[in-house]
Amino acid sequence: MDFEKKLKQRILTARIFLIAGPILMAVSIWQNLDNEFFFAWGTALMVIGIVRLRQYRKVMASPEAMRAQEVAETDERNIMLSSKAKSWAFGWYVLICGLAVIVLEFMGKVELATLLAFSVCALIVLYWGCYHVLKRKY
Fold it and tell me: What's the pLDDT at 38?
């Protein structure tokens, strides 16, 4: 895929975030929701949309910046580092959550421990599924 086309798709996603954010904020205010969940998510989406739009437009404005961004995203070393970082993050998440489940069980917070254990299980199942899909593809 052409890198400029990829950036235009990212700009579209940022615009969607920029539109969805205020909508969630308005729903939160309009419905008089007691928790700030929708308002917080709306604010986060709006900020992400604004920041990403500025970044992508800055890259699109300069051919040198676009080329530098393309090289940064397609460089083999950067791809390898990204893959390793994801692998490490996955491993550390599973380890830390596993320890947290044990500590939470000793503290008597069984529901929270169960939720955390299920999140680890879901992540491992997701990893396993992605692994098998990628194994067939490559």
Answer: 86
Q: Which residue has the tokens 């579209």?
A: 12
Q: What CA–CA distances, in Å, run from 9 to 5, 12, 16, 56, 64?
A: 6, 5, 11, 10, 20
User: 86-133, pLDDT tens digit by residue?
Assistant: 999 999 999 999 999 999 999 999 999 999 999 999 999 999 999 999
From its phi and psi, is residue 75 left (phi > 0), alpha (psi between -120 and 50) or beta?
beta
Query: How many whole angstroms separate alpha carbon 11 and alpha carbon 49?
Result: 9
CA distance 72 to 78: 7
* 127: CB partners within 8 A, 6+ apart: 90
For 55, phi then psi, to 5°, come to -65, -50
Q: Which of 137, 10, 130 is nearest to 73 (CA)?
A: 10
Query: What is the amino acid identity at position 58?
Result: K
The DSSP symbol for 34 reads: S
